[in-house]
Amino acid sequence: MVPLRRVLVGRPRSRFQWVIDVLVILTILTGTFGAYALGLFQVSGGVIVLPAAATLVGFVVAVGVGARHSGLVVAWLGLFAAYIGFRADWAFLGLSSHSLGGKFAFLFDPVGLAVLGVATLIIGTVGFAVGYLGRSSIERLRGKALSQQTRD
Questions:
Q1: Residue 142: is it exposed, middle or buried by C-beta count within 10 angstroms (0-12/13-18/19+)?
Q2: pLDDT per residue as tens digits for the range 11-33
Q3: In angstroms, rounded to a whole number, what is the distance separating the alpha carbons of residues 47 and 6?
Q4: Which of 101, 109, 141, 152 is the most exposed place for a label (fewest CB within 10 A)?
């Protein structure tokens, strides 16, 4: 059984590896913002609760984090960063008639952040579990194959 702390923060890593994780999270935030700003990611209109492209990017990141066994918190932060990149684009480039204070108020709206937070916990956990269990299964199968080869 894996301890809860190890699932949340991952296996012990160096400070350099933590810095890399933070840089990856910041890259996800700015990359998602840039992709929406440049029109690479589209929003089809209507009421937007969860942007599809940001959700997909964050889910893929969570799967990768799970596969690396880097910790659930890192997976959640990666997905949340994608959502914040979307909201930053919407606030600063989509709400042109609002003041700067109004744009920041939209970006940090507690209700919007709570919705994204709940979605992050659910979707990020599922993505992390897919990656974690997938890699663990592959490692077990490799171990069984190697032990089978040594017996033959």
A1: exposed
A2: 778 889 889 999 999 999 999 99
A3: 38
A4: 152
Burial 24-39 (b: 16+ CB within 10 A, else e): bbeebbebbbebbeee
Residue 33's domain spans which residues?
15-38+48-151
CA atoms of 9 and 138, how far apart (whole Å)? 22
In a domain, residue 55? The reply is yes
Instruction: Please tell me the distance from the alpha carbon of residue 23 to that of residue 93, in angstroms, as a whole number.
Output: 24
Helix (H, G, I), strand (E, B) or coil at 48: coil
Question: What amino acid is encoded at 72 in this protein?
Answer: L
Domain count, the chain: 1
The rounded Cα 136 to chain-centroid distance in angstroms is 20
- Whole-number Cα distances in Å, 94 to 18, 55, 104, 105: 33, 19, 12, 14
pLDDT band at 53 (very low <50, low <70, confident <90, very high): very high
pLDDT of 152 strictly over 70: no
Longest Cα–Cα distance of the chain, Å, equals 73
Q: What is the pLDDT of residues 76-116, one digit of tens each?
A: 999 999 999 999 999 999 888 889 999 999 999 999 999 99
Tokens standing for residue 135: 């890699």
Does 9 fall in a domain?
Answer: no
